[in-house]
């Protein structure tokens, strides 16, 4: 998508949203463009009903974390297993930032225009990325299902409290090596680059590190692969340096992974 056409879509959506704001309450009780918790618009709520009817989820317990672009919920499946629902925001999505991770990836050549479609595509992309890693034996959260803007995975944590991320954990040398190995395995085995690899997107579990938040991950053939890979290595290196660990030169790691 060119910068110009992105601008056009953005303007169009802005004016659509303005128009919607002017409309009053609808007969069905849903105010147009009105959302609960910034995420539960009418389509998403109907989508949740569908997931319940199809026995993919049983009920939703509550919010785990509300971010700018998605809200993660703790839910249960019909067997009472904990599951996590990552619901991408349709109304306030910052798709401009996202499109750089879509255009150029051969898996997503036809990007349908319109915010909703881009958000659905983004959710599907994250699901595909996680599934690819999971199938390659890379430690990631276990993917379950995706439909529209809702991504469903196993819940990492207990009683609705998510597992600590690297940022929230005491760390050691081993975590550093595992992190670099994750980046290397992503590149070599899953042929992906995470694009947002950081202490915020890795759980530290009793069985080692577990990666999540793979919406930004791109195929290795993406034109920006090397920049994303370099940035991923630098970001995680900086984190371990800040925590006082001795680290390898990031340039050497980059060379080793890509050679
Ligand atoms: N499978 C899961 N199990 C338990 N908690 C989860 C799971 N996935 C995400 N979370 C919780 O939700 C938070 C946000 O998740 P995630 O990083 O995927 O979304 P995000 O950062 O909002 O995404 P983005 O980077 O696109 O804004 C995590 O820090 C974690 O606390
Ligand atoms: Mg995140």
From TrEMBL:
<feature type="domain" description="RIO kinase">
    <location>
        <begin position="29"/>
        <end position="259"/>
    </location>
</feature>
<dbReference type="GO" id="GO:0005524">
    <property type="term" value="F:ATP binding"/>
</dbReference>
<keyword id="KW-0479">Metal-binding</keyword>
<protein>
    <recommendedName>
        <fullName>non-specific serine/threonine protein kinase</fullName>
        <ecNumber>2.7.11.1</ecNumber>
    </recommendedName>
</protein>
<keyword id="KW-0723">Serine/threonine-protein kinase</keyword>
<dbReference type="InterPro" id="IPR011009">
    <property type="entry name" value="Kinase-like_dom_sf"/>
</dbReference>
<dbReference type="InterPro" id="IPR018934">
    <property type="entry name" value="RIO_dom"/>
</dbReference>
<keyword id="KW-0460">Magnesium</keyword>
<comment type="similarity">
    <text>Belongs to the protein kinase superfamily. RIO-type Ser/Thr kinase family.</text>
</comment>
<keyword id="KW-0808">Transferase</keyword>
<dbReference type="GO" id="GO:0004674">
    <property type="term" value="F:protein serine/threonine kinase activity"/>
</dbReference>
<dbReference type="Pfam" id="PF01163">
    <property type="entry name" value="RIO1"/>
</dbReference>
<dbReference type="InterPro" id="IPR000687">
    <property type="entry name" value="RIO_kinase"/>
</dbReference>
<dbReference type="InterPro" id="IPR051272">
    <property type="entry name" value="RIO-type_Ser/Thr_kinase"/>
</dbReference>
<dbReference type="GO" id="GO:0046872">
    <property type="term" value="F:metal ion binding"/>
</dbReference>
<keyword id="KW-0067">ATP-binding</keyword>
<keyword id="KW-0547">Nucleotide-binding</keyword>
<keyword id="KW-0418">Kinase</keyword>
